[in-house]
Amino acid sequence: MKTLIKIYSAYGLIVFGLVFILILPFFLLAIFIKPLEKTAGFLNHIWARLLFFFLFLNRSKIVYEEKLSRKQCYIFCANHFSFLDIPSMGLINHNFKFIGKSSLKKIPLWGWMYGKLHILVDRTNLRGKHESWVKAKSAVENGFSIAFFPEGGIVSKRPPELGRFKDGSFKIAVDCQIPIAPVTMHNNHLLLPDENPLIMHPGLISVKVHKPIWPTGTGDAAVQDLKEKVRSVIEKELQLSHNH
Fold first, then answer.
1. What is the arrangement of strands in the sheet containing 75-78, beginning at the earlier edge strand?
2. 182 pLDDT exceeds 80?
């Protein structure tokens, strides 16, 4: 059984590389031709669909509690337990930019592409945090939605138990007065555990996009209220799916 898992894991890495190379020329067009920048969200969706078609034999499922409006900017906030979470967000067919940690740019080629199309944040200093916040607000003003992992990385040692949520995404939602759509990744931590990121298991990619939550008011109180509401929604969904 261990041998089969290792073979499957190696297959997964090959599929990831081949699908990325296939889509890369289109990502390059989105990077170097400014009017095509907004195709990046659709390209993320195609990449995710192709990746999961070959990786899990098309065993991926996304459920929306409410239909999203194409004309509305959202902040997508998801739990983060596995490296599969980034491509899983691509199953959401919406025009968004990721906000991710700056260390992602160290990944050869893919990290460079990610840094050009999305927003990287250096959480080790205040200037880096502020710059990413300004870029995120600018992206929203230009019609992009934003995708965040509010835990700030894979921090939970006991998934599906959530780590502490950071304020950043909720501040942007309050400042820009746009809704947050909570997103639950049900079992990515079982398919590709963080403690063994090169060992993959077959299964179902399952994503739920919850009903968007609008901020109520402005200021720090509104930020904390929104953060608690979003966390509660994701937490309840994780408990429900884990108990089943």
1. 60-64, 205-209, 180-185, 75-78, 145-148, 96-101, 119-121
2. yes
What is the pTM assigned to this prediction? Answer: 0.95
Q: Residue 199 and residue 221: Cα distance in Å, rounded?
A: 42
- Report which of 121, 75, 115 is spatially closest to residue 96, judged by C-alpha positions: 75
Residue whose token pair is 């081949």: 18
The structure tokens 């509104």 sit at 222
The domains located in the chain, with CATH, are 2-243 (3.40.1130.10)
Question: Whole-angstrom Cα distance, residue 184 to residue 207?
Answer: 6
d(CA 224, CA 244): 30
Q: What is the largest CA-CA distance in the chain?
A: 55
Chain centre distance of CA 79:
9
- Residue 92, both tokens: 């959401």
- Torsion sign, CA atoms 185, 190, 195, 196: negative
Pick 129 or 93 by higher pLDDT: 93
Nearest Cα residue to 112 out of 228, 31, 217: 31
Using alpha carbons only, give the angle 81, 9, 3 rounded to the nearest 5 degrees: 125
